[in-house]
Design goal:
This protein is α+β, with helices and mostly antiparallel strands. It has 5 domains: about 1-60, Winged helix-like DNA-binding domain superfamily/Winged helix DNA-binding domain (Arc Repressor Mutant, subunit A); about 135-200, OB fold (Dihydrolipoamide Acetyltransferase, E2P), CATH 2.40.50.700; about 220-405 and about 415-455, no CATH class; about 475-525, no CATH class; about 620-700, Beta Barrel (OB fold (Dihydrolipoamide Acetyltransferase, E2P)), CATH 2.40.50.140. The strands form 10 sheets. The chain has a 5-stranded mixed barrel with strand order 3-4-5-7-6. The protein has a 5-stranded mixed β-barrel with strand order 8-9-10-12-11. It has a 5-stranded mixed sheet with strand order 13-20-19-16-15. A hairpin with a 2-residue loop joins strand 26 (about 625-630) and strand 27 (about 635-640). The longest helix is centred in the C-terminal third of the chain and has 42 residues, at about 575-615.
Length: about 700
């Protein structure tokens, strides 16, 4: 009996909690050791609960919920349930019972306080600790010390005894290993295992982020050795069973500094005015075999991480920048999705084939944008043999984008800010980047490919890893509407459900308005986070019924494993034993990939925020023009042209007493009636920068 079959038995309305012995007898289990191991595994994961009477049952049938804690700097937390259909549960500080941010726990639900009230609960069991090591700042007190965690969501300092200081000095950034977890009012205890150095020393800031999120730097020797044994070029015998597409015109389009090139594209005119689009994806699964040292390391890392000053790759550079990267002029093994697309942008036929390709040109986004929209004759002449293809790509991408909007895709408008560093790693400038036709070509083609592959595997009923984005919780939509009401907008809810159309309608109306950024931000926060799942639950944001991540196997583990599954199915449907194994593995792969992706996103965002704060520290006292991007009771936020955002605290507005008008999202002077509203242009001076907290303070220097 596998895990899903056992859980299905326990979900039946007739099931009542049974002991292990009773389950063995009731279910007529023959392989008792494996069955008992399955019970222990499901209990560890919080999928089932062992009661004090040693009986097994489902947590939801006992008023319990299992999941992962999301802490808050103010001390409370939310339980993010393992069951995505269950709403988040609020946990008061006194109900955490020693649990910390990111721990896997079981929560007992409190009786509802009233109709429509949010679920609340208390942690009754900690299934797995997430913070074996913590990064923070060390403070010494005569004979002992404390580590103040960088991650404020942990909400508690760690006591370090004199014999466990490890040579740390006050103000050092350190890594502390937890030796005793918090109990009642007692702080956790730990031993310092690494001193990163004084917080102000160059490089310590980003190194702290690397350690905080458990990002591995060096690859283990056995992984490097395995990579070294892989040939640097495609061998003749490796072409057997592959479609030879080396004569097809093929390009890559990436950022100028990209080295791990996952995808390449080919396009040609198709019958009836349509196109034949070929999306070639690096065949990483050919080189990284399941269960190998390379595979185990890729699973642990989950994703490549792109920090502001370095890349921490999922695979060793020998693969990520070498044999797996679709470098121009080199034979490369690929998985190619060949799609016949009609003039309306609909895929009318497709194939998924192992292939061998050779990229003709390595293009950058800037070059393609200039070729399509600019007047650089020298550039257009250099790539004259590809002009027709680029025009076809642009035309098809616009049609695909329009189709996505028609079906209700939610398209947020957030320009990316890139920090340019000097040779010493100091921020030199900030570049605000917006999406252009060149980026849209790749984005639309990759989305279409991911949808095509996901639907193909869904109808094969194959065990798979899907990319899912569920509908927002209605409670979150109600809170969103409370905010939007003050600005004259509303997300429609029909029969207790919300559609992506409703979100898109608001985004259309707010486009170009002063409140556009704040509305985009609050709407994004009201939505669930996309994740990986063995179940095809659709993608709310893209308005896709079927979706997966297939197009970046060099840098994302889910893409790598679904390539393997596709290759297995191309050879014929796997046997029953393998299917059961894949059922189990896809659940494990999905959870691990979701966890590592979230850590990578937070680390990347934190490294950018850090360098942006460092950049503004060099501009203390300088004056900038900006726009009010958010208004609160304690002041208003101002966004500068370079994308930096800082706070003008209400206490610095000394010409009057200002009160917060929530409905108008404004601060109003009680006597002068002067008003500061969302979208107002203001001139500010940089007066304080706290790089440790990533906070920037402004003061107004003149009236509008």
């Amino acid at each position: 009996m596998n895990r899903e079959e056992l859980l299905e038995v326990m979900r039946q309305s007739t099931y009542k909690p049974l002991t292990a012995e009773e389950l063995v007898r009731e279910l007529q289990i023959e392989d008792i050791p494996n069955f008992l191991a399955l019970l222990r595994e499901l209990e560890r994961e919080g999928e089932i609960i062992l009661t004090r009477k040693q009986k097994y049952g489902l947590p939801e049938r006992m008023g319990l919920v299992s999941g992962r804690l999301q802490g808050h700097a103010k001390g409370f937390a939310f339980l993010i349930p393992s069951n995505p259909g269950h709403p988040d549960v609020y946990i008061a500080p006194e109900d955490l019972n020693g649990a910390l941010h990111n721990d896997r726990v079981v929560v007992r639900l409190h009786p509802p306080r009233g109709r429509g009230s949010r679920p609340e609960g208390e942690v009754i069991r900690i299934l797995a600790r997430a913070n074996e090591t913590v990064v923070g700042t060390f403070e010494f007190y005569k004979k002992y010390g404390f580590v103040i965690p960088d991650d404020k969501r942990l909400g508690i300092d760690i006591f370090v005894a004199a014999e466990d200081l490890g040579g740390a000095r006050s103000g050092d950034k350190v890594v502390v290993h937890i030796t005793r977890w918090p109990e009642g009012r007692r702080s956790p205890e730990g031993r310092i295992i690494e001193v990163l150095g004084p917080a102000q020393r160059p490089g310590v800031d980003v190194l702290s982020i690397v350690r905080k999120y458990g990002l591995p730097e060096a690859f283990p020797e056995e992984v490097l050795q395995e990579a070294a044994n892989i040939p640097d070029r495609v061998l003749p015998q490796e072409l057997a069973g592959r479609r030879d597409l080396r004569s097809v015109k093929t390009v890559t389009i990436d950022g100028a500094d990209a080295k791990d090139l996952d995808d390449a594209i080919s396009i040609e005119a198709g019958p009836g005015g349509g196109w034949r689009l070929m999306v070639h994806i690096a065949d990483v699964s050919y080189y990284v075999r399941e269960g190998s040292a390379l595979d185990r390391e890729a699973f642990a890392r989950g994703t490549s991480v792109y920090l502001v000053d370095r890349v921490i790759p999922m695979l060793p550079p020998k693969l990520s920048n070498g044999i797996c990267s679709l470098n121009a002029g080199e034979d490369r093994l690929a998985m190619t999705v060949i799609m016949d697309v009609d003039p309306r942008g609909k895929v009318v036929a497709y194939e998924i084939v192992p292939s061998v390709i050779q990229v003709d040109r390595r293009m950058t986004y800037d070059e393609v944008r200039e070729i399509l929209l600019g007047d650089n004759r020298e550039l257009r002449d250099r790539y004259r043999d590809f002009l027709a293809e680029f025009k076809m790509m642009a035309e098809l991408s616009r049609i695909l984008y329009a189709n996505r909007l028609k079906r209700g895709a939610v398209d947020f408008n957030f320009p990316e800010v890139k920090v340019i560093l000097d040779e010493q790693g100091k921020p030199e400038s900030l570049e605000k980047r917006v999406r252009t036709i060149a980026e849209s070509i790749i984005e639309e083609f990759m989305i279409l490919t991911n949808e095509t592959v996901a639907e193909h595997m869904f109808w094969l009923e194959a065990p798979f890893v899907y990319r899912v984005h569920e509908e927002p919780d209605l409670d979150n939509v109600e809170e969103l509407n409370d905010f939007l009401h003050n600005l004259g907008y509303h997300v429609k809810v029909s029969n207790g459900e919300v559609s992506s159309w409703a979100f898109q309608e608001v985004l259309k109306k707010v486009q170009g308005q002063p409140e556009e950024k704040i509305v985009n931000t609050v709407m994004l926060r009201s939505m669930k986070h996309a994740r990986y799942s063995p179940d095809s639950l659709g993608h709310f944001g893209l308005a896709s019924h079927y979706y997966c991540h297939f197009t970046a196997p060099i840098r994302r583990y889910p893409d790598l494993v679904i390539h393997r599954i596709i290759r297995e199915y191309l050879a014929g449907k796997p046997g029953e034993k393998r299917l059961k194994e894949l059922d189990k593995l896809t659940a494990i792969w999905s959870e691990q990939a979701s966890i590592r992706e979230k850590a990578a996103e937070e680390a990347e965002r934190e490294s950018v925020d850090l360098k942006m704060a460092e950049y503004m520290e060099r501009h203390l006292g300088q004056v900038f023009e900006g726009m009010i991007s958010g208004v609160t009771s304690f002041g208003f936020f101002v966004e500068l042209e370079n994308g930096v955002e800082g706070l003008v605290h209400v206490s610095t507005l000394t010409d009057d007493y200002y009160v917060f008008r929530e409905k108008q999202l404004a601060l109003l002077g009680q006597h002068t009636r002067k008003m500061y509203r969302l979208g107002d242009r203001v001139t500010v001076q940089v007066v304080k920068v706290n790089t440790e907290e990533r906070q920037i303070d402004f003061e107004l220097v003149e009236d509008r």
